[in-house]
Amino acid sequence: MPIDPTKPYDDSNIFARILRGELPCKRIYEDEHALAFHDINPLAPVHILVIPKGPYVSWDDFSARASDAEMAGFVRAVGKVARDQQLEVQGYRLLANIGKRAGQEVPHLHVHIFGGQPLGPMLAR
C-alpha cells in the first residue's frame, strides 16, 4: 500500500529492520552511509536496492535533512554499486518512488537500480 511521505519516520519499516539486523538481506555493499542488497522480488535481471542508513522517509526528507556527508556518501554508494555490477557499459535505470502517486511502499528512502536487459520506456501508459 502506498505511503504518505509527509508522515514521520516509522522505525518499524522493513528497511529499518534490515539495517538493525532483525531481517536478512542478500547484501552486496555497505559503508557508513548506505546499504545495498538484492530486491526480493526482482523486476529485471539486476534489481538492487540502495538505502541510506539514516532515518529518511523519502527523497524530499533526505534532501532537506541529511548532512552533506550523508548525501555525498549515498549518491556515491549508488554509483559504486552500479559500477561494481558492470552496469555502466550496457546502461541501467535508477528509480526512487516518492509518495502515493508514485507508488512508494516502504517509508524509508530507497533507490532501485535496474539493469541486465533493455528496460523499455521510462513510464508505462
Automatic annotation (TrEMBL):
Q: Which residues form the HIT domain?
A: 14-124
Single GO molecular function: catalytic activity
The portions of this protein that span the membrane are none
CDD domains with a match to the protein in the record: PKCI_related
**For the motif Histidine triad motif, what are the positions?**
108-112
Identify the catalytic residues: 110 (tele-amp-histidine intermediate)
Mind telling me which InterPro entries this protein's record contains? Answer: Histidine_triad_CS (IPR019808), Histidine_triad_HIT (IPR001310), HIT-like (IPR011146), HIT-like_sf (IPR036265)
Query: Pfam families, alphabetically?
Result: HIT (PF01230)
Q: What is this protein called?
A: Histidine triad nucleotide-binding protein
Which organism encodes this protein? Sphingomonas sabuli
